[in-house]
Design goal:
Length: about 675
């Protein structure tokens, strides 16, 4: 048995899990002698050829127990060759004219995980296939671990119509290991919990129920389908399937196996189902589609799930076999959600019927098959009712809908901005009205931008321009070039369907240093929040400013004109003189002359805020000498601090070391340079 790695795909442009998840990989191993050692365990083989089996009654052929030599195999593909079955529309009759059962071949699997054997499971329908392709004689089995497996062929024939003939010598088994790759629904590891990278908003579409994308579950082609280019057709019906496989704990690994089976094994180039749902009600994107193309072409991507009925339908498959097992209610509700979401765009109610019959049907309703199993098929009324409830919700989206067109900050198209605490930035988000109603920024139900995640939270970046702590703004103008920060803006109070409005507001950074994500969502005040969840947000990087200075020079003069220097080594009691200090900004924050925060001043030090004996009445206070003379001083520039000093009338006749330091008022003291004036008082 030889093993070959056939897939190793990096998910470019998608790093939600890349920090801790393995690159998706599929390992295949072929068991060429899978037909050796089998036997007929029921009925008689009437084939005259030793390598073939067929019957005129009922017969079961069972393979030997086949070792896989793998501890991680989670899927297997059985392939065989047989003569054609009697066409479905041709009825079989006895001589008396009574109907008899059709002649059939039913493949079955069972697997062993190293401890015990599973139940025998019927393989999937051959009618789950892409249009324009022939029925293939193969079947997929899924399991958690497959250390051994067995297959059966159940043949049914009649005296006047033998069963199809199977050539056992051409039967093969291929074992798959698709366990390596992202698994978004499995319990989170400690690292995942600590990083918090997994979020509940993972979606393959921009709104509707949560849908795990192809990148989420590790599709080898997460963002394209080059071998089966998407084709879009208006949707009129949802078709429910089961995968006719066992349920496994790792749904993503199961999807990777189905993708390999459909895309490569059957040669379709992609997975056939539009959506796949697991027993926990998690919805996964199957067939690749481009959401923008769905919108522009007003259609659903054509899949390969119901031969002859793929155009105009969406195929929703549930992982599992529901021939005799009841589906989980979470799966039923999820089918209703995704069916309602896809159908509502075309005005189709999942609980009603149309030109093709019921708008939500089982696979057996459109072609001859037992899919989706008796138990799932019997729950179609539950699915339709769940679809009805969700249809009513999604229909309201048609009134209030949006299309994201871009965002920016401080005149640049971006979704991130760097700020120091207390600094402000001018933000904007451009949204197009894709609903059926006008947007108004005044009146009873004005459209506003609200805070999100959690909804209606008090914003962390509130400024005085905000409408309220949880309403940054409304639109003020129409945008001629959406997303362009320099677009021509036309003031307006109404945004009609098809027009784009700009939502502009001022954000003020809080004193909390770090990276903050601020989410926003439109709301028609007093009516409804918009259902289409785009996850619109800004990334605010709040950085602690570094205030530092470098000594450049100091001097003293008889007056402010600085025409005559003063010798500070020979001062008289009561003498008044003007002194000046020049320093350089060596930090990363611009110094301001005035303001509530970060206004830089020359202050007394050693100790801080002491009262200086050389205080002059022109000082700002007894411990604040002066502010900088320049309005702003950027990093690398120099600042000048000048002030009058008065020698105390009772000053001791000695040298007085007057220490000073810069302070960013209300924030921090600068680094210590030991800067001082040595004032010497003489007789």
């Amino acid at each position: 048995m030889g093993f070959t790695v056939i897939l190793g795909v990096t998910l470019f442009g998608y790093d939600r899990y890349s920090r801790y998840q393995q690159t998706p990989e599929t390992i295949k191993s072929s068991i060429a002698d899978a037909s050796n050692g089998g036997r007929v365990i029921r009925g008689n083989n009437t084939s005259p050829e030793s390598t073939k089996i067929s019957t005129t009654t009922n017969m079961v052929y069972e393979s030997r127990e086949i070792e896989t030599d793998s501890k991680k195999a989670n899927a297997a593909v059985l392939k065989w060759e047989q003569t054609s079955e009697v066409p479905v529309d041709e009825e079989q009759h006895t001589d008396s004219g009574e109907h008899t059962k059709d002649v059939t071949v039913t493949p079955q699997f069972r697997t062993n995980n190293g401890d015990e054997w599973s139940e025998w499971v019927d393989a999937g329908s051959q009618e789950d296939r892409k249009d324009g392709t022939a029925a293939s004689h193969d079947a997929l089995v899924l399991a958690d671990k497959i250390t051994k497996l067995q297959y059966r062929f159940k043949l049914t024939g009649h005296e006047n119509e033998p069963s199809p003939s199977i050539d056992l010598s051409k039967t093969s088994v291929e074992v798959l290991d698709t366990s390596k790759g992202p698994s978004p629904t499995k319990p989170k590891s400690l690292l995942e919990k600590l990083t918090g990278v997994f979020d509940k908003k993972a979606s393959a579409v921009a709104e509707g129920p949560q849908v795990f994308s192809r990148a989420d579950w590790g599709s080898p082609e997460p963002n394209s389908s080059p071998r089966w280019e998407p084709e879009y057709e208006p949707l009129s019906q949802a078709v429910v399937h089961h995968t006719a496989t066992t349920q496994t704990p790792d749904s993503a690994a199961a999807l990777r196996a189905i993708w390999e089976f459909h895309a490569n094994g059957r040669g379709w180039g992609d997975i056939g189902y539009n959506y796949i749902i697991d027993h926990g009600g998690n919805i996964f994107q199957g067939r690749y589609s481009n959401w923008q193309d769905e919108q522009s072409q007003n259609g659903e991507v054509v899949g390969g799930h119901a031969y002859g009925n793929n155009y105009g339908t969406t195929g929703i498959a549930v992982l599992g076999n529901f021939t005799s097992t009841n589906p989980d209610n979470r799966s039923l509700q999820a089918i209703g959600k995704i069916a309602a979401f896809k159908l509502h765009r075309f005005g189709i109610n999942p609980a009603q019927s149309g030109a093709r019959g019921p708008n939500v049907v089982g696979h057996r309703d459109v072609t001859s098959t037992s899919c989706p199993g008796e138990r799932l098929y019997g729950n179609l009324p539950t699915i339709r009712y769940a679809g009805l409830l969700n249809f009513n919700t999604y229909s309201s989206m048609a009134q209030h809908d949006i299309w994201y067109r871009g965002q920016g900050a401080n005149g640049v198209a971006t979704n991130s901005v760097n700020l120091f605490p207390g600094e402000q930035a001018e933000m904007y988000i451009d949204l197009t009205n894709t609903g059926t109603e006008n947007w108004n920024n005044t009146g009873a139900n004005p459209l506003r931008l609200g805070t999100e995640f959690p909804r209606d939270r008090s914003g962390l970046f509130v400024s005085s321009s905000w409408i309220s702590p949880n309403r940054p703004t409304t639109f003020q103008s129409k945008v001629s070039t959406p997303g362009d920060p320099n677009s021509v803006l036309t003031p307006t109070s109404v945004i009609a369907p098809g027009e784009t409005g700009r939502f502009a507001f001022t954000a003020k950074a809080p004193p909390y240093v770090g990276t903050h994500l601020a989410y926003y969502q439109p709301v028609a005040e007093g009516r409804t929040w918009f259902l289409r969840q785009l996850g619109m947000h800004f990334v605010f990087n709040v950085k602690a400013p570094r205030f530092s200075w470098q000594y450049v020079g100091q001097s003293a003069y008889t007056n402010q004109t600085k025409s005559t220097p003063v010798n500070v080594s020979s001062l008289s009691r009561g003498q008044r003189f003007y002194a000046e200090l020049t320093v350089r900004n060596t930090g990363d924050k611009t110094w301001n002359k005035t303001g509530d925060l970060y206004a830089v001043k020359l202050a007394t030090s050693n100790p801080h805020d002491r009262t200086s004996g050389f205080y002059d009445s022109t000082w700002m206070s007894a411990n604040r000498v002066s502010m900088q003379q320049e309005t702003t001083v950027q990093p690398g520039q120099t600042a000048t601090f000048g002030a009058w000093f008065t020698v105390p009338s009772n000053a001791q006749l000695t040298t007085h070391k007057e220490y000073f330091k810069l302070v960013a008022e209300g924030y921090t003291w600068f680094n210590e340079l030991g800067m001082h004036w040595p004032f010497t008082v003489t007789n």
